[in-house]
Design brief:
single chain, 188 residues, five-stranded antiparallel beta sheet, 25% strand
Length: 188
Amino acid sequence: MAVQGNLLVASPYTTPLHLLDLRTISKPNQLIAKALTLFKQVRRDYATAPYTESFNWSHIIEALRVLVKEEYAYSWEQQNFYIIVFRSQIPPTTDRTHLATLDRLSHAGATESGGLLKYWFGTPDITGRNLATCVWRSRDDARKGGSGGDHVQAMRETTKLYTEWEVERLTLVIGEGVRHWEIVELPP
């Protein structure tokens, strides 16, 4: 877990504009954000496979249980978190430098808006398929984070940069005492 004082590395970006300030979020959000630093793919076809089977969710939840136990006086009540999944296919002709710039600027804006707990993206496979995902405190936070100028510009350019793309919306539900959890699909 990469923590620099009260700042948490919660994405592939490690410069100050991209760090999550733990002082700005509640205790359950701090704990899940710390557990999410362990987020990683568990299969090579994560870009096309079912989301819940593509990442180490059980490991993250176990880490959360440990963190909650370390907070001796803390009692975890049921919490819901909002997940965005962006599946895409990028043609080999896409300027990846431009794409990386759009992504970096969009992430900085989303971080500044508040509520972004985790951002992860993979590397396109040989067919150009990839997946990026965000975990937010709430759907409202995601809407706010997605309404910034850099994110709006990046979304406008999506039609030019990708052969195809799809957005999935999910809820991560973590039950009382972190005894159970599930990820459920939401309507668009």
